[in-house]
Amino acid sequence: MSNGAFVRTASAxxxxxxxxxxxxxxxxxxxxxxxxxxxxxxxxxxLMVRALKGLEDVIGVSIVHxxxxxxxxxxxxxxxxxxxxxxxxDDPVANVRGFGxxxxxxxxxxxxxGAKTVRELCAFGNLCALYEALFFISQYRFLFFLPxxxxx
Length: 152
What we know:
Layout: E1 17-18, E2 25-26, E3 32-36, H1 41-52, E4 60-63, E5 69-70, E6 81-82, E7 93-94, E8 101-102, H2 118-123, H3 127-130, E9 134-137, E10 142-147
Parallel strand pairs: 1-2, 3-4
Antiparallel strand pairs: 3-10, 5-6, 7-8, 9-10
C-alpha cells in the first residue's frame, strides 16, 4: 500500500470438514491425517483440539522430529534441511547446527505414505496441489492436513 499499512491477504482455505450432505470434505473416520511438528504452536493447537474433541481414533497423526535435518543426506550437491520423520525408538538426533542432540521419543513416523521427510511427502504426485490439502509450511512452522480418500 502507498501508506505503508499491512494488508493481510485473504486465506485460500475456506472449506471445512462437515457432516452436511454434499460437503467437499465429509466427516468420516480414517479419512484425514495430520502431519505436525510439536515445535509449531499452530500444529500443537490442532493436536489439542483433536484430543479435546475425542478425535484421536478418527484422525490419524504423524509427528516430525523437532529439528531440521538434511532431506537428502546421501546427495552431496543438495544441502537442503527440513522436517524429518523418525521412529520413537531411534537414537537421539544431533541438531544440524551442532547444539546437542534431541530425543525421538515424541516422533510418530508417516504410516500413510511411508515418507522419511516432509520434502518427500510433498513430492508424492505433487501432493500439495493434487489433494487440495490444507497446509502451512515454512522454516519454523509445519501443519499439513490431508484428506486421505482422494489419494489414487
